[in-house]
Design brief:
Blueprint (H helix, E strand, L loop, with lengths): L6 E2 L34 E5 L2 E5 L5 E6 L3 E7 L4 E6 L2 E6 L4 E7 L7 E4 L23 E6 L5 E6 L6 H4 E3 L4 E2 L1 H11 L6 H14 L33 E5 L2 E10 L3 E9 L4 E3 L6 E2 L12 E3 L5 E4 L2 E4 L5 E4 L3 E2 L1 E2 L11
Parallel strand pairs: 1-19, 5-24, 9-10
Antiparallel strand pairs: 2-3, 2-23, 3-4, 5-6, 6-7, 7-8, 10-11, 12-13, 14-15, 15-16, 16-17, 17-18, 19-20, 20-21, 21-22
Length: 341
Amino acid sequence: MRSCCVLIAVLIVLGGCGSTTTVHPDNAGPGEQPTADSEREFAIVLTGDKLVRDYGDGTVEEIVTANGADECYADAVHKVVWMIGSKGVATFDTVDGKHHLVAETDVSIELFAVQSYTDPTDPFPATNAGNVREVDHCVALVVSIGAEPTVGGVVVGEGDRLFDCYDDVESEHLAPDYVVYMERYNSIQTFDINYLKSLEARRRKSGAQPEQDDSKTPAKPTVDIPKSQCTADPDDCGKVSYVGGRFWSVITGNDRGDFYYEYRQLYDATTREFFHPGTGDRSAKPFVPHYDLDRLIVAPGRTWAVFEGTRLSLVTGELGGEFDGLMCDPVSFVKVGAALD
């Protein structure tokens, strides 16, 4: 089991929104952007060949066809949904209501990220915020949005992962498999430079930044975990991070073999119990064996989540119905140049 992270899906804020009318693909156009009540929280979800808004309460609204995409990433900074598929990299633009083919390629894309804020005079620096999924690949295809947009490969592995990425970490000589990915990504020469420039102009005009609003995070609970359960870093046992509603993620153990492993479980601060999102079971002590919290995907507003295809209310702690689709993760933002420093 790898170290556990919780995925937070991003709410894309649409301009001029007020109604909750469902807009279907055959009548959505530049003058009819899908809109939603700005007070309601939703996740962007890829289901079948459609992008939909899922409000977590059983309400689902179709946005547009996905044009064959099999992965999606929500980008609240540039107000687009990035879509990865057999045609390459595309967006659904929530401002103009159109699909845009950004980079046409038949190269298999294993990991995708966006690089922004490349202008040194820009007051907002590049950040590594957004997608918090554990990176299990060493090279990402990165779309760079800035004064001079580019598309190409960037090394994104870090920590222990670097020993898989490089033949020799000190010389930063990539392992042969990742050299192939880097060459494939760097071979992509056809992309819509003018559209990428328009996204940067949009971002600069709005001043948007990839930040997580923690202003509503409640007071941290104290959870007692024996340090003996954390053989690699004993002081980390019992550390908590906010998930949403009544739930926190608690470090219940760590160890080190060839790699560092960290184990987390959900904790209900209201009832002071550990919670298993797969079964709904509760326990005064952490569950044995550990379950994989990497599979927990938290929707915007932190009021509901999905675990292995089942909905979970983070407010009530109740398991809900089945979830059919792929929640569009927040797009990763990587540092300018490379993500190694």
